[in-house]
Amino acid sequence: MDVAVGDKLLMKKSHPCGCNTFSVLRVGMDFKIKCNGCGHEVMLPRAKVEKNIKQIIKETEDV
């Protein structure tokens, strides 16, 4: 998958706060993502994040 820092991820499952979009802060073997609803930052293994991505919204695109 082509995920870069600054991209927004629309996930299959939502965060407990109700938001299902996350910003990518770090990419590597682990992803550091930040919830766009409450601002909570989470580090997750790459495989788990890639499995749960519904859509990648590139930094240059607008919704």
The averaged pLDDT comes out at: 92
Strand content: 35-45%
User: How many DSSP H or I helices?
Assistant: 1
Order of strands across the biggest sheet? Answer: 4-3-2-1-5
What does this structure look like?
- This protein has 63 residues and is mainly beta.
- Helix content is 11%, strand content 41%.
- It contains 1 helix and 5 strands.
- It has a 5-stranded antiparallel β-sheet with strand order 4-3-2-1-5, with helices on one face.
- A hairpin with a 3-residue loop joins β2 and β3.
- The model has no long low-confidence stretch (mean pLDDT 92).
In short:
The chain has 63 residues and is mainly β. It has one helix at residues 46-52; strands spanning 8-11, 21-26, 30-35, 41-45, 53-57.
What's the topology here?
Blueprint lengths: L7 E4 L9 E6 L3 E6 L5 E5 H7 E5 L6
Antiparallel strand pairs: 1-2, 1-5, 2-3, 3-4
Please name the defining characteristics of this protein.
five-stranded antiparallel sheet, single chain, mainly beta, 63 residues
